[in-house]
Amino acid sequence: MRVLIYGGGAVGLGIASCLIRSGNRVEIVARAQTVAVLQREGLCRTGIFGRADAEAGVFGCYASLDQAAGGPYDFVLICTKSFDSASAARDLAEREDRIGGQARLVLFQNGWGNAEAFCAHFARHRVYNARVITGFRRQRPNEVEITVHADAIHIGSLFSGELPVLDELCRAIRDGGIPCEKTDAIEKDLWAKMLYNCALNPLGAILGVPYGALAGQPATKALMNRIVEEVFAVMLAAGYRTHWQKAQEFLDVFYERLVPDTAEHKSSMLQDIAAGKRTEIDALNGAVIRLADAHGLNVPYNHAVYNLIKFIEGSRSE
User: Fold this and answer.
1) What pTM value is reported for the model?
2) 260 with 195, same domain?
3) pLDDT, tens digit, 9 for 90 and up, residues 262-274
4) Which of 35, 65, 173, 251 ranks highest by number of CB atoms within 10 Å?
5) Contact between residue 179 and residue 49 where contact means Cβ atoms under 8 Å apart
6) Residue 42 and residue 36: Cα distance in Å, rounded?
């Protein structure tokens, strides 16, 4: 396969390492600083799935689509932050001659609403989503560590797109070291992750602690319970579904399996705040608030953590 990775952060480099290792032609579009180090030193992945190295020159890396070798690509994997979805979609659409008219776009992003940004520019049958519950941490511009893993990467379509076209991509990611499979239930998977992320990410970032610490204290458990209950109610009101019928059913799995499996992980939101970067709060609790407003629901706990993260972001930018 020919695959373009659009976004050279921790997730993008982690997935790129798998595809390179399994013998595919990979090109990465990333920030100039990242590109310079990748071109000089290659790519290194470490962590719980072992080490994978790719020498400089084995893969392409560029600071813009205009510099890339050009398609046609089989897949374009979008690995930017959610707040960059609209600009990424425009950039790719304006240069569709560079990527090819048949390339499938797979969104490796947090939150809800990313697919809509891409469907504004591309046919729905070309847009797919990936659900990732694997912790990636970038130590240096060309080094990524996999810290935790709760479940296989799931890839599917929100718009009844063809699933067999994903077989080779999923197999390549698996062969490269990370479990991955296609699914016909990606909507349920994405909302399961929304429940997980909306409860853990902002509180972990506000308090500066890993996920396990949040579940270990009655006070933060009570807050997470209320956040999950609100997200669940909004999800149902908006006509979406997940793998559980009731919020409590999710919470049972959340505390029994999901949090213990990722107990040592510090959220990407906490990592962004520590680095003085913008967070993805608008695609997480912010998306819940927007849907709640549209359906006349009150979500005070989601509002509270959303506003606290916005305060922290504002304080860091002053």
Assistant:
1) 0.94
2) yes
3) 898 888 899 899 8
4) 173
5) no
6) 10
Q: Which residue has 């989503």 as its token pair?
A: 129
Quote the mean pLDDT of the chain: 95
- Residue 96 one-letter amino acid: E
Domain count within the chain: 2
Residue 307: in which H helix or E strand, if any?
helix 300-317
Instruction: Check whether residue 110 and residue 24 sit in a common domain.
Output: yes
Determine contact, residues 205/285, Cβ cutoff 8 Å. Answer: no
Burial of 94 (0-12, 13-18, 19+ CB in 10 A): exposed
Place of tokens 């046609």: 72
- 197 and 172 in a single domain? The answer is no
Residues 221 and 257 in one domain: yes
Same domain, 21 and 123: yes
Catalytic residue among 193, 246, 266, 310: 193
| CB 1 within 8 Å of CB 75 | yes
* Last residue within a domain, chosen from 160, 184, 208: 184
Domain region containing 265: 188-317
d(Cα 61, Cα 39) in Å, to the nearest integer?
A: 7
For residue 154, what is the domain's CATH number? Answer: 3.40.50.720
Instruction: Find how far residue 226's CA is from the centre of its chain.
Output: 24
Over residues 222-263, the pLDDT tens digits come to 999 999 999 999 999 999 999 999 999 999 999 999 999 889
Residue type, 44: C
Asked if 137 and 210 touch (Cβ cutoff 8 Å), the reply is no
Distance CA 215, CA 5 (A): 35
- d(CA 33, CA 35) in angstroms, rounded, equals 5
Which pLDDT does position 223 carry in this prediction? 98
Paired sense of beta strands 75-78 and 60-62, if any: unpaired
Shared domain for 173 and 220, answered yes or no, is no
- Neighbouring residues of 127: CB distance < 8 A, sequence distance ≥ 6: 104, 105, 107, 115, 118, 119, 157, 158, 159, 161
Residue 89's closest CA among 56, 65, 60? 65
| Judgement on whether residues 93 and 232 belong to the same structural domain of the protein | no
Q: Quote the tokens at residue 147.
A: 């810290």
User: Does the active-site annotation cover 193?
Assistant: yes
